[in-house]
Every structure is written in C-alpha cells, then in structure tokens.
C-alpha cells in the first residue's frame, strides 16, 4: 500500500456524505436543551488550552442521561483534516426539569495537524457542543451549539510549546 491518506476511507473524511450511524446516534425517553456555550479565552494563543462550558437542561418529563459531545473544525487548514473531530464527550445524568453546567478542556494537542510532524497552526476554528454530531439528522431533535474562536501566533511544532 502506497497511499496512506484517510480521504474517502473513513467517515471523518467522506466530504458531504454523512455516516449511517454516527457517534452518539440513539434515542432518549426525554428531551434536552443546550445553551450558554462559553469559550475562554475568546482569542487563544497558539500553545494555549481552551476552556469550555455549556449548560444542559432536561426539558422532558423523565430523568435521563445525555452524552454531551464536543467537536472541533478547522476553518482553513494547510493540510487535509477531518470535517470535524471529536475532542471531548461525557455521559451525564440530568433529573427531569433540572439543568447542569458542564466544564471541558480542549488541549492544544487536539488542534495539531500532521505535516511530517505534529504542528499547531493559527487561524479560525469552530467548536460544536451538543448531543450529536454537527449536521446530523435524527428522528428526535437535538440541538448543536457552535462558537468560533481565533488562534493567534506563529505556526510551530507541537513539541515547541
């Protein structure tokens, strides 16, 4: 085998075609609402980690569990990358009518791209938070929030941070 690219070989690189059963696919006996997605700092230095918080509310009549998923998208990478990449997830139990605030950390390594070595690049990124992948169509609606953030500084090898 001489072609080691993943393009067209895994769902992360299929382009506009969505997988039949994406990560997080499933149904619930209750409904959830996401709100107040906050990224900190709002402008991220090249080697810094990103702090994320989001509020999850159980808007249904029954207690339930939700798998909260965070995905990252590079807006203009210098090399081929996935449409979005899962960077964090957590299963949480939320009683009916209650809400919880969740905190996540997206580390710099999760923004690295492979260019003969792992590199961090400046640019604009989008972070998605919700109960499913971005753009996923399901029988039960589940919203996905998104927020853009700029990464500043000069491109550098990951090991240089």
UniProtKB/TrEMBL annotation:
Domain (Fibronectin type III-like): residue spans on this chain: 66-133
EC number: 3.2.1.21
Pfam families: Fn3-like (PF14310)
Catalytic EC class: hydrolase
GO BP: carbohydrate metabolic process
The entry's keywords: Hydrolase
Reaction(s) catalysed by this chain's protein: Hydrolysis of terminal, non-reducing beta-D-glucosyl residues with release of beta-D-glucose
Listed SUPFAM superfamilies: Beta-D-glucan exohydrolase, C-terminal domain
GO MF: beta-glucosidase activity
UniProt cross-references to InterPro entries, sorted A to Z: Cellulose_deg_GH3, Fn3-like, Glyco_hydro_3_C_sf, Ig-like_fold
SMART domains noted in UniProt: Fn3_like
Family: Belongs to the glycosyl hydrolase 3 family.
Designated name of the protein: beta-glucosidase
Organism: Urocolius indicus
Gene, per the UniProt record: Bgld
